[in-house]
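Below: protein 1.
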Amino acid sequence: MSKPPFEQIVTEHGPLVLRVVRAVLGPHDAEDAWSETFLAALRAYPELPDDSNVEAWLVTVAHRKAIDVTRGNTRRPAPAGELPERAGRTGRPEDWDPDLWRALRALPERQRHAVAYHYLAGLPYAEIAALTGGSTDAARRAAADGMRTLRRTYPADPADPEGRTHQERRLGRTTAPATDTTGVPTP
């Protein structure tokens, strides 16, 4: 079996790689990391064995490019202030939910990577452990802890008519405590 043309690889796996680097790096650095991932992959693609898991290979390349971007960012001076992110109006894949990014950015690095690689890229925990270092159990724990934190901290679900967070909806809670007729919260 021969390998498909590289253009087909980009078409099939490009959106997945973009989602992963966005989750790991955020919306500002993701496109550069995506481009660097596919440039590096293009150079290495001829030597890739025919029976390789291309998706896992691309996520590995993206992981390494994300590390490069993170290291590069630590060498640059920090900006004085942060501009507010605006929600996109075009419906393109580049549009980003700033609330989700803030919730992801608040996660510890290992948890953010485990969530991105498992829930966005669909990698098994053994491959995540190989990418990030550590054991399969540690990768599983980091992904579970990250998702638990996201469920608690990610803002209200827009589909919920009561405006509850994902965690509140799951637990059956309302956003405001119940009050009696005098306006005093009830236990």
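Below: protein 2.
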Amino acid sequence: MPGPLPNPAKGRSRHTRARASEQRKARTGVIALPAVCTDPVPDLPPIRDWTDAEVAAWESLWTGPQANEWDDSFVMAVAMYVSHTFAVLGKQASAWHAQEARHLGDRLGLTPQGMAALGWQLPPSAGGQLVSLPGGA
């Protein structure tokens, strides 16, 4: 799920940067993610009011290692992940919310299973601590 290919006709964006990770994967079969993503954090979709904790989680996710492989087409999926996860942790969700949060986490490479399926590997310095969510998740 690497996203769209770079478009040389566009200016600087997540779509146009060189994907060195794809070249590394071709050689090794594994993408070694950088420890942080230095691309600008996209704005949260203005579909509802977001809490301060959700905004902090959003920023943490978009600066984490996995965000290096996301492009702008991932904005809504990450927003849904944040929304579902906070609903589950706030005990305001049904079972399908929990299931959807789990599936989104896998697809976004935020779980060990998801990272393995995508062929991603965290750098040793990341230590697996990517985002602080309420409830210790």
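Residues 132-137 have pLDDT under 50 and may be disordered.
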